[in-house]
Amino acid sequence: MKSKYNLSDYPLWTALVTPFDDNNHVDFQTLAQLVLAQQQAGNGILLLGSTGEGLALSQQEQRDIVRYVCELSPTVPLMVAIGGHDLALQLDWVEFCNTQPIDAFLVGSPLYAKPGNVGLTHWFKTLLDASDRPCMLYNVPGRSAVSISPNVIENLASHPKLWALKEASGDIATFESFRKASPDLAIYSGDDGLMPYFAQAGAAGLVSVAANAWPQQTAEFVKRSLAGTFPNLFTTWTDAVNSLFSVANPIPVKVLMHLQGQLASPRLRPPLTHLELSDTTFIKTANSTILSWS
Q: Could you tell me if 220 and 241 are in contact, meaning their C-beta atoms sit under 8 angstroms apart?
């Protein structure tokens, strides 16, 4: 199934949070409002990533979320995350998602097992082969406990389903090593605070947490970063978005969205809890700073 969108036209993808009500059920009504906010900002939407607490959801909940958002028929592209450690289970997930009107996959490294280059290449190739959609690989050693090496990217560079890479190691040298390994691969920053620096190194865009709270402002900032304009705002931006990572993501952004009135509840799925963030001063200050831009 070919996407009706040119994915390169979307430099910002929002890793959408999953809202829960006070009974710990998915709050679909609020989810629809979050999708609408991203659509109005013109941002691509990523469902069920780590920011969306995808691994804390049951398989049925994941399917229900994908079906629900697809039925909303948003006017921006949808990407769905693949994550876990059971390859057969991930292949079942890809098979289901291939039946839905989504536009791309975010394919993460297997969790916990820490495979080497051969194991990682096999993992990604198997999922790329199964996909009917373009795929963005995801390098996030802080969560998966394994780094994708440039050698793995070289092994997969000619695969027709490999579209992009989300680089979230926090290391500009790693970004540059991927650029050398596959000069034509679109590389997106996975770190909000590093977007201005990754843009200077040739990033295609950003997969963002901050855009949940600030859809329009983040879109504008990505545009400015890629154009190399308004560098005086870079420090202001980095200081503000760093407040969203003072404890484990997505705790701060959910708390902030609750304070903004976007979420009826800041609830997260265990083991994460909003009670981890005892001081909201920094996110309140960041919110005032970013919203003052518009």
A: no
pTM confidence score: 0.95
Q: Active-site residue numbers?
A: 138, 166
The matching CATH number, chosen from 3.10.250.10, 3.30.60.50, 1.10.10.350, 3.20.20.70, for 7-228 is: 3.20.20.70
Place of tokens 């503000």: 240
> Does the structure show a pLDDT above 90 at 9?
yes
Query: What are the residue ranges of helices labelled H in the chain?
Result: 28-41, 59-71, 87-97, 117-130, 141-144, 150-156, 172-181, 195-200, 215-227, 234-242, 251-260, 281-291
Give the model confidence (pLDDT) of 140-176 as tens digits: 888 888 889 999 999 999 999 999 999 998 888 888 9
CA dihedral 247, 276, 80, 147 (to 10 degrees): 40
207 is annotated as contributing to ligand binding: yes
